[in-house]
Amino acid sequence: MPGILQKKLNTIEATQILKQTVFVLLVFATFALHLFAAQMIEPGHEFKDCDDCPIMVVIPEGQYGMGGPPIDQGRPFSEGELRLVNVPRFSVGKYEITVNQWRACVNDDGCQEIKLEDWVEGEHPVANISWTEATKYTKWLRQKTEKPYRLLTEAEWEYVARANGTRARFFGVKKEEICRFSNVYDETAEEVLGYGLESLPCSDGFEHSAPVGTLKPNQFGVHDMVGNVWEWVEDCQATHWRNAPNDSSARVSGICTERAYRGGSWLSHPPKYLQTHHRYKFLGSREIDLGFRVALSLDAP
Ligand SMILES: [Ca+2]
Ligand SMILES: [Ca+2]
Questions:
Q1: What is the pLDDT of residues 211-264, one digit of tens each?
Q2: Which of 85, 146, 209, 246 has the smallest number of CB atoms closer than 10 Å to its CB?
Q3: pTM score
Q4: Residue 187 and residue 214: Cα distance in Å, rounded?
Q5: How remote is the CA of residue 246 from the centroid of ligand 2, in Å?
Q6: What's the CA-to-centroid distance between 266 and ligand 2, angstroms?
């Protein structure tokens, strides 16, 4: 009997040790998961959801005055007052969507072939695509990743372009230095293309579009917000900010056959750099210097 009792005691002790070990492992795993999740949403964190997917950057939450301050040169009179916008933490494409990324969508029958200009290579931003076609890409990305990828809203776009800057025109960068961050209609472009447009007083080295990420990123680690190609965003046409959402969501009322686009291009010269002025195009329009990038909310299911 004492032997059987001892065996039972040993079994109970072993079971308790096993339970304690499992408990400690579970606590450790939970802590590690929380730590990993926290790092995933840390501003500046980069990730991508598949091999062909765009690299995303986590953008910090914040609040800013959307629109041009009265002191901004070239500020349109019709723009109205600055409006306070609250932006939750979200993620945005580090680069514009490239031709190679578009081709991945074409190969999966999610997007249609596009006409490429002679100078365009695989890592150049895709252009010559309409707003409707850009949203087919985001639909393909949603199906591929099972995550709600989408275009940026106009408020998100401006928040990322400013990257904590207070000025809207050039987003606080001196025009003599804009070529360090942006592929614009610069001295190189005027020298090679000779369109007779007023060029910006600097040289970025590209007369057409440039491979994405060639120039320096902004304070949020995002490239080519200003220049390279203009970028389609979600919002519908409206004449002023009044009644626009202040939570950085898109305005989807108004004239929705016209959609907003932002940011300037390799073909943009100073008068087109009035960044806060509303610009809209018919959603079926295609331009050789108009592309897009994508966004993904972090609180999305
Ligand atoms: Ca240029
Ligand atoms: Ca751009």
A1: 999 999 999 999 999 899 999 999 998 877 777 889 999 999 889 999 999 988
A2: 146
A3: 0.84
A4: 18
A5: 24
A6: 9
